[in-house]
Amino acid sequence: LDAVICLKKLNFQGTLAFHQYNEPLLAGDHLFTCINLVKKHLPTVKTAVFTNGDLLSPDMFQALARAGVAKLTVSRHLRNGETWDHDRAMADIADLGGRLGVRFGLFDPAAYCAEARVRDMLLQLKAPDLRTGGRSRLGTVNTALPGKTTPRVCHLMFRELHIAYSGNAYICCEFSCERFPDLAPYALAAI
Fold first, then answer.
1. Can you state the percent helix, strand and coil of the chain, rounding each to 5?
2. Stretch 22-29: mean pLDDT, rounded?
3. Any residues with CB less than 8 A from the CB of 146 and at least 6 apart, and which?
4. Residues of 27-50 as b/e, b for ≥16 C-beta within 10 angstroms?
5. Rounded Cα distance, 156 and 172, in Å
6. I want to staple 82 with a disulfide (CB 3.0 to 4.6 A). Which of 35, 78, 110, 113 is the partner?
């Protein structure tokens, strides 16, 4: 609640995203408590949830839509030892759509990003080949194929504020002094 009150005093108008190197669906009812606090105290702020989708049941999906989540992004990543391929990405898209009863439209085939609208919520599934189109997670992951670079400009820092579980606020989802202590000077505030 303290973070929400601080954002209200600042007249924050952007998007509040639940993720920051964790799995927000593990929070269960607490996630909905947080979403409801945002809706009550910051009615113009949009909420977004980023998940790996492992815990995304049809009931959870419908509950997020009813709660007024503006954007739900499911990121599918390789497990240790797996190699990315087109068939796997397409299977992930079909599997999630079938599990949730949603028909995706593939809007960015090069990035394997599919989307659908459910109520007022944008549902995205991302299953990209990070070797050719990903970011480096502050250099902690070598995502490029040998001899190739993958520069991608991210504009989210101009639209979003990221608050970690510790209460530290960041302008970038890749900044986390909870995970990388040497980045502590880059936290905007402790809320």
1. 30, 20, 45
2. 85
3. none
4. eeeebbebbeebeeebeebbbbbb
5. 7
6. 78
- pLDDT at residue 35 in the model: 93
Return the H-helix or E-strand segment holding 108.
Answer: strand 105-108
Q: E strand or H helix at 72, and its extent?
A: strand 71-75
Instruction: State residue 127 phi and psi, 5-degree precision.
Output: -135, 55
Of the segments 6-15, 103-112, 128-137, 166-175, which one has the largest average pLDDT value? 6-15
| Residue 172: strand, helix, or coil | coil
Partners of 72 in beta bridges: 49, 123
Q: What is the side-by-side strand order in the sheet with 189-190?
A: 105-108, 113-118, 121-126, 71-75, 46-51, 15-18, 160-163, 168-170, 189-190
> Rounded mean pLDDT of 151-168?
60
CA pseudo-torsion sign 84, 128, 142, 181: negative
pLDDT tens readout for residues 60-73? 999 999 999 999 99
* 3-class SS of residue 149: coil
